[in-house]
Amino acid sequence: MRSNPVIGVLALQGDVQEHLIALAVADATARPVRRPEELAELDGLVIPGGESTTMSKLAALFGMREPLRERIAGGLPVYGTCAGLIMLADKILDPRSEQETFGGIDMIVRRNAFGRQNESFEASVDVAGIEGGPVEGVFIRAPWVESVGAEVEVLAEHNGHIVAVRQGNALATSFHPELTGDHRVHHLFTDMVLAVR
To answer: What does the alpha-carbon distance between residue 175 and residue 121 come to, in Å, rounded to a whole number?
Structure first.
């Protein structure tokens, strides 16, 4: 019998509670993470949606930026949604001043690409590696991926724009699957964590 992997949710800002619930449903031991020393206990990490500029500043303030970069570069499985996708990008097309990412995926992203808050929407998205039909994606001030490097696998597109990618142990989506009650993307990430634990 497999033991549940310990997956943290970066709890500096954003929709932390929804990810904790989705991970628990996906048979993970989920916990909020705010301090660098907590990273050592993790088998994987989720970087939630929120506001990427604020997240970048808080990561620096809490001393999390460099330890996170090191763990991600060292192969810690990581999953980013919306702002989390931006934080996993090696390059932002239109960064705010002093905004720095954690990196981990060889991609260029555009912030708020699908429009402002009042232009948020839901859409069915076919995600490679997810069985059982399309995933319902919630897009809230969502980014999209402008381009990817050779090592990046594109998992999904919406209206011709890349909205889900994977590179090695790193997974990212423009949308929020944690807000829909469909936990298949979190199951996929849990399986990724178990594969390298």
So the answer is: 10
Q: Please report the beta strands in 11-114, taking only residues with DSSP state E, as ranges in sequence order.
A: 29-33, 44-47, 78-81, 89-92, 105-110
% of the chain at pLDDT higher than 70: 98
**Annotated catalytic residue, options 158, 178, 183, 186:** 178
Global pTM? Answer: 0.95
Given 18, 19, 158, 176, the catalytic residue: 176
CB atoms < 10 A from the CB of 150, how many? 6
Inter-CA distances, 41 with 3, 14, 45, 76, 148, Å: 15, 22, 10, 11, 31
Q: In this structure, which amino acid lies at residue 186? A: H
Query: Is 186 a residue of the active site?
Result: no
The more confident residue out of 160 and 2 is: 160
Contact at 8 Å (CB) between 68 and 106? no
Determine which one of 18, 19, 82, 183 is catalytic: 82
- Residues 12-23: pLDDT tens digits? 998 999 999 999
Q: What is d(CA 79, CA 119) in angstroms, rounded to the nearest whole number?
A: 25
Give bridge partners of residue 122 from the DSSP assignment: 138
* 158 noted as active-site residue: no
Identify which of 164, 162, 120, 168 has the alpha carbon closest to the alpha carbon of residue 145.
162
Closest CA to 169 of 131, 129, 196: 196
